[in-house]
Write a structure and sequence with these properties.
With 418 residues, the chain is mainly β. The protein folds into 3 domains: 26-227, Thrombin, subunit H; 235-310, Pdz3 Domain (Roll), CATH 2.30.42.10; 327-415, Roll (Pdz3 Domain), CATH 2.30.42.10. Helices cover 15% and strands 38% of the residues. The protein has 9 helices and 28 strands. The strands form 6 sheets. A 6-stranded antiparallel beta barrel has the order 3-4-5-8-7-6. Strands 9-10-11-16-13-12 form a 6-stranded antiparallel β-barrel. Strands 17, 18, 19, 20, 21 and 22 form a 6-stranded antiparallel β-sheet that branches. Strand 17 and strand 18 form a beta hairpin. It is flat and about 75 Å long.
Length: 418
C-alpha cells in the first residue's frame, strides 16, 4: 500500500505493524452497551388513492416499558408501525406523539424490561471527537459505521423544521439510518441520526444528527405532556460576523423585549456557554421550558450587558402547555388542553380544542381546532379533567356549547356517546 507523507514522496507501509495505529479507538465495548436498545422500524403508508407504500427506519428505546424514539419523518402519515428489537421480537407500535419542527417522534410497544439508551451531554462534544452510528441502512439491521465529528451547530435550512442546529459527522449514513443512534466512546447516546435532509435528498458519505440534549428534552416532553414544551425567546437572530448571534428583530412583549434585548445587539453567551453562531443559540433555547429564566451576555456598541430572559411559549405566555390525548378523547377525535393563565385573565373559559383527528366523529360534525368548550350538556367545564368526567357520566349523546375567537356568537355541537 502506498501513501504520501508531508514530503509528498511515496512510502510503503507495513500494515502488520499495528503500533502505528494505536490511537484509533475501538468501539467494541461502547457498541455492546447500546446496540440492544436499537430497533428496526417498518411503516406502511396509504396514499389518497388507497395504494400502499412501505418504508423503513431506525429507533431506540429510552425506557424499559417500550417507549421508542425515532425521526418524525420516519413515521409521518403511517397507517401502521412495526418494530423489531435486537432479539428479533416483533411488535406493533402506536404513536405517542411527534413534533415536526424538531423531527422527533415517540412510539410505544408493549415491551417489558427492554434495553434502553443512556444519554450523554451533547453540549460537551468537540470537533474531531470519535463517534459511531448504529442503524438499519437499506434494511441491513444493526449496521455500525465509525467516524469523527466534522462540525457542530450546522445549519441546514430544512423545510418545516424549527430546529436548525445539527451535529455533522463523516460516518456513513444511508436510507434506513434515520432515527438511529449516534454514540460516543462510552456507549452513550449523543445524537439521533437524521440522514434525510429534504424530500428529494438522501445523505451518503456524511451524516447529520440531532443533539442528544434536544432529543432527550423533546422525547420526555412528548411522553409527559403530549407534545414538546417549546420555549421561545421572541427574537430573530442571524450569524454575526465573527462569533455570537446578531439580533435581527425583537417581538414586542416577548421574552427578549421584556428583558431589554434590542435589534442590533450581539448575543455572545447564554448561561456559561460562549456562542459561535445563531444555530447554537437556537439549540440551547430548545433545551428549556416556557417559564424558565435564561441569562445572556450581549454586546451593544461598546457596552457589555447582562440580561435575564423569562422564556415563553408559542402563545407568548409563561405557562407549560399540556396537550391531552387520553384514550377517551381520542375516541371522539379530540386533543384538548386547559386554558393558560393569560387566557383566563382575558376572560376566556372552558377547555381548548388543539386538534381534531381527521375522519373522527368530531370531524364529521365540523368541529374545528380553536374552539373553546364552555359547557357539556349545560354543565360548565373548567378543565380537561372536568370535561372527561362529564362526558363519562353522560347518557346517550352530549352537547358541546362554546365559541371561537375568530367567529362571532356561540356554537353548539352534538356528539353521540361511544
Amino acid at each position: 500500500v502506498v501513501i504520501f507523507e508531508e514530503s509528498q514522496s511515496p512510502k510503503n507501509i507495513n500494515f502488520t505493524n499495528t503500533s502505528k495505529f494505536t490511537n484509533i479507538p475501538s468501539f467494541k465495548h461502547a457498541i455492546s452497551k447500546i446496540i440492544k436498545s436499537v430497533v428496526y422500524i417498518r411503516v406502511i403508508r396509504k396514499n389518497d388513492d388507497g395504494e400502499l407504500s412501505f418504508d423503513v427506519g431506525s429507533g431506540f428505546a429510552i425506557l424499559p416499558t417500550g417507549e421508542i424514539v425515532t425521526n418524525e419523518h420516519v413515521i409521518h402519515d403511517a397507517e401502521k408501525i412495526m418494530v423489531t428489537d435486537y432479539q428479533n421480537k416483533e411488535y406493533d407500535a402506536k404513536l405517542i406523539g411527534a413534533d415536526i419542527g424538531s423531527d422527533i417522534a415517540v412510539i410505544k410497544v408493549n415491551g417489558q424490561n427492554m434495553s434502553f439508551v443512556f444519554f450523554g451531554n451533547s453540549d460537551l462534544l468537540g470537533v474531531g471527537d470519535w463517534i459511531a452510528e448504529i442503524g438499519s441502512p437499506f434494511k441491513l439491521r444493526n449496521s455500525v459505521t465509525v467516524g469523527v465529528i466534522s462540525a457542530l451547530h450546522r445549519s441546514l435550512d430544512k423545510s418545516n423544521r424549527t430546529l436548525d442546529s445539527y451535529i455533522q459527522t463523516d460516518a456513513l449514513a444511508n436510507p434506513g439510518n434515520s432515527g438511529g443512534v449516534l454514540l460516543d466512546q462510552e456507549g452513550k447516546l449523543i445524537g439521533m441520526v437524521t440522514s434525510k435532509l429534504s424530500d428529494n435528498t438522501d445523505i451518503q458519505g456524511f451524516s447529520f444528527a440531532i443533539p442528544s440534549n434536544v432529543v432527550k428534552k423533546s422525547a420526555f416532553d412528548i411522553i409527559n405532556f403530549g407534545g414538546v414544551q417549546k420555549a421561545y425567546a421572541g427574537m430573530a437572530v442571524i450569524d454575526n460576523i465573527g462569533e455570537g448571534a446578531l439580533v435581527e428583530s425583537v417581538r414586542k412583549n416577548g421574552a427578549a423585549f421584556n428583558s431589554g434585548v434590542r435589534k442590533g445587539d450581539v448575543i455572545t453567551n447564554i448561561e456559561d456557554i460562549k456562542l459561535c453562531c445563531s444555530a447554537q443559540l437556537t439549540e440551547k433555547i430548545a433545551q428549556y421550558n416556557p417559564g424558565d429564566s435564561v441569562r445572556v451576555i450581549l454586546q451593544r456598541a461598546d457596552e457589555v450587558l447582562e440580561k435575564i430572559l423569562i422564556l415563553r411559549n408559542n402563545l407568548n405566555t409563561e405557562d407549560l402547555i399540556v396537550n391531552r390525548k387520553d384514550e377517551i378523547l381520542l375516541d371522539y377525535g379530540l386533543i384538548l388542553r386547559d386554558l393558560t393563565n393569560e387566557e383566563k385573565k382575558s376572560g376566556n373559559s372552558g377547555v381548548y380544542i388543539v386538534s381534531i383527528i381527521k375522519n373522527s366523529v368530531s370531524d364529521e360534525v365540523n368541529l374545528e381546532p380553536g374552539f373553546f368548550i364552555k359547557e357539556v350538556n349545560g354543565i360548565q367545564v373548567n378543565s380537561v379533567d372536568e370535561f372527561i368526567k362529564t362526558i363519562t357520566n353522560s347518557q346517550g349523546q352530549f352537547v358541546l356549547n362554546g365559541y371561537y375567537k375568530s367567529y362571532p356568537g356561540e356554537f353548539k355541537y352534538v356528539l353521540e356517546k361511544r
